[in-house]
Every structure is written in structure tokens, then in C-alpha cells.
Amino acid sequence: MAPVVFPTQKTEDIQQNKMASIKELAESGGLTSVPSEYTFASNPNDQADQHDPDHSMPTIDFSLLMSTSPDQRAKILHDLRKACEEWGFFMLINHGVPESLMKNMIDVCQGFFNLPEEEKKVYQSRNLLDPIKYGTSFNAEIDKVLLWRDFLKVISHPRFHSLPKPEGYSEVSLEFSKRIREVATELLRAISETLGLEADYIEKSMNWDQGFQMLAANYYPACPDPENAIGIPPHTDHGLLTILIQNGMGGLQVQHKGKWVNWNAIPNSLVVNLADHMQILTNDKYKSVWHRAVVNNRAPRISIAVPHGPSLETVVVAAPELVEKQGRPPAYKGLSYHDFLEYQQSAKCYMKSCLDAIRL
């Protein structure tokens, strides 16, 4: 694909568009460099390592998790445990979510971002748990540097919400959220087993039937100077686990053994990462891993992250069975999932891990 050409644009025009969507700004006709408010000063030592043989990314065959063979299941649970302990990230293959559905989900999200700005702006909101939210960057009230991304966040469980436009979004997103939730449920059962717990332990203790699920679509336009901008800075996710799909453009980087690694996902795989509440629940046995989204100057990238958490009222603490087995006290104080989400959005957690704030 040919690189995008960026013609010139006057500085005053850029300033007028400061808080416009990044898609609108990038397509306004004129960027030859990253505007100052979007300039993200990265550390040269934080460049992604692409050649280290220790960075072989784990792959889990979901179909084997469904196996009735004791030997096959024991082997895949061993692999899953290792992926959770050593990476906190893995690729999921043979997961049963149709490739056509994944593509359609990306297409309808692209369709939303292509809507006129006035139609998208009706979903702009500062309220944390509004069922549908559209915006740009992270939090305009506390952002020190604006991010090279627009987002759409739609809560899909315990109550499903949808959009009237673009055409087909409602039907596609409903089917997609159901299929992804089925995968997440089976993963949590398998993760429970890797911890030596009953398969339904996480489901029961986290009130999974009322668990929080969100479809979070991110749009990263082509950038004239990707080395000086960031899609999403280093962060960890809230919840138990996140499942992600993306279009053909890479951009996800994961921190592993102190180095940043380009996560080159297998086509049609699901990318799964453990999140903060899994780390709390397992008392630091499984970690929520830092990751980030970088941008490129070739073409837009779309990713759809689906975070899964406990019910909003659930106070998450370390599993007593694991605390006893580990022989050490809980590492974190209990906090409801809702309160954790609010804290994560506050200035106190800006560019920081919320886990540090609740560590005992």
C-alpha cells in the first residue's frame, strides 16, 4: 500500500482543530508534521525489539481447551499456565469466531468512524459509564499530550447497547459480542484450572453472569511522523482479560522481560491479555502486562478491544485459596470494580498503574 501524502497546513488551522477528532484533523488536508499538542516524546531506549529469540509469542489452540482427551487437555492447560505466567499475553487460534464476523465487525466500526462529525459527536460524554461514548485522545481534562486515536466504546453486557448507524452495526456487534463472550467464559474456566481452582471459581467469585463487557473500537489514522506521536501510551487494562482483533495494520507492542516487543499476531487469531483484576485475584501470580499502541505513516489501523470484568458491584480481592497456598497475605486492598474504573480515569492514575495505588 502506498504511503499517505500529507500536504502543508497553516499552524492557525491546526490550532483551531486542536480538539477535533484525530481522523478529522488527519484528513483535513495539510499535516506535514505532528502538531505540538500531539507530540509524544518517547525514550530512544524504548524502541521495540524485533529479533530477540526469547520473544517467541505464545499461541494457544482454543479447540484443545474443549478436548475430552485428558492428555490433550493437560498439555494445553500447561501451555496456558506458562503463557499467563511468562507473558500475560497470548494468541488464540481455532477459537470458533468466524473470520467473516471479525471482518464485518471491523467494517461496521470503520463505518461509524466514517460518519459525519456531527453524527458522531452526539455520543461525546464525560460520564464514565455512559452506554455509548465517542471521543478522541484519553481524557481532555487531564491529557498532557493528545493521542493519535479516536475511540468508540459501547457497553455490551450485562445489557447490550447499540447504534442506529452505520447500517448493520447492531446485528453484527450483537453476534460478535456474544461469540467473544463465549470464548472469554471458556478461557476463564481454563485459567481457573491452571490455578488449581474449580473451573467455575472465577465465574462465581466475580459474578460473571452480570459481568462487564465493552466493545472498544480504536481508530488510528496514518500519521506524518509516527516516531513523534502515540496511539495509546504504555498502560495496563482494567478487568479480568481483554480480547482484541485488528485490521491488517500492526501497532500493538507488549513489554516482555523489560523490552518492548512488536506483537505480530497470526491472521484471524484473537489476541488475549490478562488485566488488572486478574492480577489482584491471583495475588500477583498472573500479571497484568504493560502494552501500548504505536502509529504508522502508511494507512489507518483499527483495533477492537473487548475488556471483560466482574460485575460493577463486585469487590475484587485475592482468592483465599491462593493466599493460603502462597503463604503470604493479599497484595491489594479490596475495591469494587466500579470504584476502580473511576480511579483509573482520574488524574492520580494518569500514565501510572492503578495497582500501585491499592497495593498493601
In words, what does this structure look like?
- It is a single chain.
- By secondary structure, this protein is an alpha+beta fold.
- The protein has a single domain (20-29, 37-314), classed as Jelly Rolls (Sandwich).
- It contains 12 helices and 14 strands.
- The chain has helices at 11-16, 22-26, 62-65, 70-86, 99-113, 117-120, 169-194, 201-205, 276-281, 320-326, 337-344, 354-358; strands spanning 59-61, 89-93, 132-136, 150-157, 213-220, 232-235, 241-246, 252-256, 259-262, 270-274, 291-293, 301-308, 315-316, 335-336.
- An 8-stranded mixed beta sheet has the order 1-2-10-7-12-5-4-3.
- Helix 4 crosses helix 7 (169-194).
- Keywords: Dioxygenase, Iron, Metal-binding, Oxidoreductase, Vitamin C.
- Residues 210-310 form the Fe2OG dioxygenase domain.
- Residues 34-47 have a biased composition (Polar residues).
- It comes from Ziziphus jujuba (Chinese jujube).
